[in-house]
Amino acid sequence: MYHLRAFFHQKLNWLVGKLVPQELDPESAAVIQHSLLEVGHWDKIIIGACFASAIKIALVCAEPDSRPLPIFHFLSFSILFGFASLFMSKAINTKFPNTARVLEGASVFFVVTAFFIAISIPFPLYLKLTVLVAFTVCLILVILRLYNRFYR
């Protein structure tokens, strides 16, 4: 079990090293900040988050005498749907660009949902409800922004 954990830890460090630049000049930092605001440039972040989360969930479930909470199933499905949406959007991008953009947005939604689920796992019930309210408010704001952008 220790060798498996060390192997995944090594691969995770390699992946993070590839995704995050070591030294940034101010011009590159501005470009990265601008690109993070657009949904089209989230693919590396989503793949990294899905990969890291999948490994951590697998390690938690692989521990002896461990019975994961049912919330881990929702977390796993959210990560799965996020990765699958991103994969499909990249696969159909040349023939169906509009559908690919919708799938990429769905991928961001599922990974953000996974983040909210993961952050609320250790909390007591009243804080879980607070996280649910924060997620709902964020979702409503995003829907209103999209409505104002496309239908006005």
Explain this structure to me?
It is built from six helices and no strands. It has helices at residues 2-19, 26-36, 43-62, 71-91, 97-120, 125-150. Helix 3 packs across helix 5 and helix 5 (97-120) packs antiparallel against helix 6 (125-150). The relative contact order is 0.09.
Using brief descriptors, characterize the structure shown:
about 150 residues; mainly alpha; 6 helices
The low-pLDDT segments are 33-39
Structural class: mainly alpha
Overall 3D shape: flat
Return the domain count: 1
Strand content: under 5%
Radius of gyration using CA atoms only: 18 Å
- Run of helices and strands: HHHHHH
The N- and C-terminal alpha carbons lie at a distance of 56 Å
Sheet with most strands: none
Count of DSSP H/I helices? 6
Helix content: over 70%
Mean pLDDT, to the nearest integer, reads: 75
What is the β-strand count?
A: 0
Sum this structure up briefly.
Keywords: Membrane, Transmembrane, Transmembrane helix. By secondary structure, this protein is mainly alpha-helical.
SSE arrangement:
Elements: H1 2-19, H2 26-36, H3 43-62, H4 71-91, H5 97-120, H6 125-150
